[in-house]
Write a structure and sequence with these properties.
The protein is of the alpha/beta class and about 325 residues long. The protein has 15 helices and eight strands. Strand 3 and strand 4 form a beta hairpin.
Length: about 325
């Protein structure tokens, strides 16, 4: 295992901030299904493992688990369901090998209805346990949409990676996902800053004035300028990492930068464009073969793009590739 650096406490659901945790958590989400989240998660895990890091992939798509298929792993003998139902008391009992050195997997829950409606106590147990997992990187492959379970996993992560297709409907859904994540984050700290009424107004007024960070902070300053200043500093760390998948044209390659710019202009928060993955027949063929494209065709355009995205995440963490000379 690569040496683990000390990590600052993470802001998240109550009771989690001081627990032991992996070096870094990456959550891969999206506003709609069929955009390639699982493909990105699986191959990002392969890329980081190939860089010499210990990686644990978790299929957290509660109700639509298929990450094991992307990795060519057969029907798992133990899944997230077993851990949640206490058939397996320890997380290690549901971790399975993937065949890729340094890359392990927790397969997703198979009983879709129970898992998709995860109870609060189950979610807390899962979050606390995952944050104590022994890994350099923990990658959560999330379900589509903006349910509380999905959003809570997303904002828990050090890197919330939002996958989007270069299509108007996908971009619109990605914006909704980002906004839902931001306001969910506000809900987690509202009592700390005394802004419960402001957040409630923002969430319940369909066409109200509280639609951006600027709006929320302006209201907060009227109540307590000092508290609003602390809130602004805390929320400055809320930065979504954007990945454009299946880019077919040169214009598609610029969609990420355009979305990030619009988000900053209209919402007042930075968004990082990690890059685009070109549409690649090799990636499609690899999916059909149930093999990560980084394993099946490491020289393909899709593989090269994913390796660049992994390198950018490592650079954001100040981590160099352990396998580099």
């Amino acid at each position: 295992m690569a040496p683990t650096a000390s990590v600052p406490a993470v802001s998240g659901p109550p009771g989690l901030s001081r627990r032991p945790r992996p070096r870094r958590i990456i959550a891969v989400g999206g506003g709609k299904g069929g955009i390639g989240k699982s493909m990105v998660s699986a191959n990002l895990g392969v890329a980081l493992a190939q860089a010499g890091l210990n990686v644990l992939l978790v299929d957290a798509d509660l109700g639509g688990a298929n990450l094991h298929t992307c990795l060519g792993v057969g029907q798992p003998s133990a899944t997230l369901s077993d851990f949640l139902r206490k058939n397996k008391a320890q997380l290690d009992e549901v971790i399975i090998p993937t065949g890729v050195p340094r890359l392990s997997l927790i397969a997703g829950a198979q009983d879709a209805l129970d898992a998709a409606n995860l109870k609060y106590a189950q979610k807390q147990k899962l979050l606390k346990t995952l944050m104590g997992a022994s890994a350099d990187y923990l990658i959560l492959d999330l379900g589509a949409g903006t349910s509380f379970n999905t959003i809570d996993f997303f904002i828990l992560a050090d890197h919330g990676v939002l996958v989007v297709l270069p299509e108007p409907t996908s971009v619109e859904n990605a914006y909704r996902f980002a906004k839902a994540a931001f306001f969910r984050r506000l809900q987690q700290v509202e009592s700390q800053y005394g802004i419960e009424d402001i957040v409630e107004s923002a969430l319940t007024t369909r066409e109200g004035s509280l639609r951006t960070l600027h709006d929320v902070l302006a209201q907060a300053r009227r109540k307590d300028p000092a508290s609003a200043e602390r809130l602004e500093r805390e929320l400055a760390s809320f930065r979504i990492r954007l990945v454009v998948n299946q880019a077919r044209t040169d214009a598609d390659l610029n969609v990420g930068a355009a979305v990030a710019s619009a988000w900053k202009k209209f919402f007042g928060i930075e968004m990082d464009d990690l890059g685009a993955i070109r549409y690649d027949d090799e990636a499609w063929r690899s999916v059909r073969k149930r093999r990560p494209v980084l394993i099946e065709r490491p020289d393909s355009p899709a593989s090269t793009a994913i390796q660049r995205i992994a390198a950018r995440l490592l650079a954001l963490d100040g981590t160099t590739d352990p396998s580099s000379p």
